[in-house]
Amino acid sequence: MTSKAFRRTMMACLCIVLAFMYIPIIAIIGMSFNKTPYGMFPYVFTTQWYKTLFTTSNLLPACILSLKFSFLVTLAAVVIGTLCSYGLQYYAPKWAARFNFVLQLPIIIPWLVTSISLLLLFSFLGSGRGMVTMFLGNLIVVLPYVVLLVNGRFQDMDRSPEAAARLLGASPVRVFFDITLPAITPGILAGGIMAMIMCFNNFVLQYYLIPVGTNTLPTLVFTRIRSEYQADLNALSAIIVLIAIIIVIVFSRLGFSAGSLFGMSGGAKKKGE
After folding, report:
1. Can you tell me the distance from the alpha carbon of 179 to that of 236, in angstroms, rounded to the nearest whole number?
2. Would you call 229 helix, strand, or coil by DSSP?
3. Residue 139: per-residue pLDDT
């Protein structure tokens, strides 16, 4: 196979992969404006599913609960994870690599096993299912990702500015906020994004730990799909896609790409570039 034929083959494969990725997203947006609830044809434009979503649907309250809950878990995970990573890197550097290995184990274990284990643990402790239990369970699951991502930024950062600031008499607190924190911000953002997405989407953990009678978006969607599919879910899906696009655009405008946030090639764009 010539290099030109190989290049064409690779481009065709890439187009097929992109089609499988984006056609369902485009389709769900189109279906959200279609009067036919279960397919694309016949296509009759309508906004009734959006009206249903914002008036009588129970999806929106569940989505708002999921967002609030995910934000609180993410905030706690980012604060605790950043402090843990800072402590490892500066006060126990010999243990940092070993601790990274320990943190990888909960990531590899399937969420189903983790969910059942946490349910048994909390039941043994007398708490059982509840919002506090679900909060702690989600925090336990997402915290390793935050610590590992922040650790990666700590390991890549240049420590010489910190040393220079200390020689000039800067306090540890000022060194942290003026030098260290800006340097590890991409790692913190990456950890926060990962924690938010995982917490928002983690159906298995929420299914086992959520209080009876309460629904987050993943558990409600599961319940409704089992009983009857309703097209207001299409409208909510389209809104979530729009929010995701806006977030990507905002981060791109701020100079952060997926590669820079998650420690891949490239970094935040410098001013003037």
Report:
1. 41
2. coil
3. 93
Domain annotation covers residue 1? no
Q: Please report where in the chains the tokens 């189903």 appear, as a residue.
A: 112
Q: Is the pLDDT of residue 249 over 50?
A: yes
d(CA 91, CA 74): 25
Global confidence as pTM: 0.80
CATH number of the domain at 102, please: 1.10.3720.10
Beta-carbon count within 10 A of 179 CB: 20
Say if 261 falls within a structural domain.
no
Distance of CA 83 to the CA centre of its chain: 20
Q: Are 84 and 147 in contact (CB under 8 A)?
A: yes
Number of domains in the chain: 1
What are the angstrom distances between the C-alpha of 202 and each of 48, 53, 70, 151? 29, 22, 10, 24
Show the tokens assigned to 207: 């299914």
Q: CB of 186 within 8 A of CB of 153? A: yes
Q: Which of 136, 187, 114 is nearest to 157 (CA)?
A: 187
Range of the domain at 89: 59-229
